[in-house]
Amino acid sequence: MGDSPDRSVRGMLALNLKRARAQRGLSLSELSRRSKIGKATLSQLESGTGNPTIETVFSLSRVLEMPISDLLDTRPPAGLRVVRAKDVEVLSGDAVDLRPLQRIESGDAVFEIYDQQVRAGCRRDSLGHVGTEHTIVQAGRLGVSVDGHEVELEPGDYVGFDAALPHSYSAQEETVRSVLLLQYRPDQRLRPHASGPPDGERVGCGD
Question: How far apart are CA 196 and CA 207, in angstroms?
Fold first, then answer.
C-alpha cells in the first residue's frame, strides 16, 4: 500500500510552496532575500521538516502574492462540512494562534475563515499582505491599528480594511478571540510577483 499524502499544515505548505516558487521562477536564495526568511528555513519548509509560524506564512503570502489557503491547502470541500475546533491544526506565532476553518471559492474570488486568538499582553504588527481583512470579536477587547488609525473593539464589533496597509492587533488584559475572514480578489491570486518591499511581521508581549 502506498503512502498517503501528508495533509498537515506542514505537509501542505511544503507541497504548495515548492509549486508556487517554481511557477514564479524563484530560487531559494531569491525567495529568502524577498521574504527575509533564512534559506535554510525555507529549505526545511519545502522538505516538510520545518515548523511554520504565522509570521512565516504571512510573509510568504505577501512575497508570493497568493492567498494563505493556496499555501496551506488545495481541496475545496463539497456538501455539508463540519469543522471541529479540536480537530484543526493550530498555526501559531509569538502573539496569535490561528485555526483555519474553511476556504470558500465564489467565482474567481477566495474567502478564508479562521478562528483567531490574540494572547493577553501581546501585539502583532504586520507591514501588510494581499487581500481584504475582516474581523469580528467574540470575546475580550481587541486593539486594532490600521495605517495609523486606532480603534478598540468589544465582543460583537466588526472591523474591515485593506490588508495591504500596515496593521496590528493587540490584546491587553485578556486573550481575545475573534473570527478572521480574509478576502481575495481574482487579481490577487497566483499572479507573478512584482518587485516590492518584503513583508515584515513584528510581535511583542508584555511581561
Answer: 35
Distance CA 128, CA 131 (A): 9
Spell out where 70-156 has E strands: 91-92, 96-106, 109-118, 122-126, 132-139, 142-146, 149-153
- Domain ranges within the chain, ordered by starting residue: 9-72, 85-205
The model's pLDDT over 160-207, given as tens digits with 9 standing for 90+, comes to 999 999 999 999 889 999 999 999 987 765 443 333 333 445 556 765
Nearest CA to 174 among 143, 141, 204, 198? 141
Query: Hey, is 21 helix, strand or coil?
Result: helix
Which residues are bridge partners to 132 per DSSP? 162, 183
Q: Which CATH superfamily is domain 9-72 in?
A: lambda repressor-like DNA-binding domains (1.10.260.40)
Which residues have CB under 8 Å from 2's CB, separation 6+? none
Class level of CATH domain 85-205: mainly beta
Q: Are 52 and 100 in contact (CB under 8 A)?
A: no
Residue 181's closest CA among 86, 103, 73, 74? Answer: 103
Q: How does residue 30 score in pLDDT terms, banded at 50, 70 and 90?
A: very high
Under 8 Å between Cβ of 141 and 172? yes
Angle 201-204-206 (CA atoms, 0-180°, nearest 5)?
A: 170
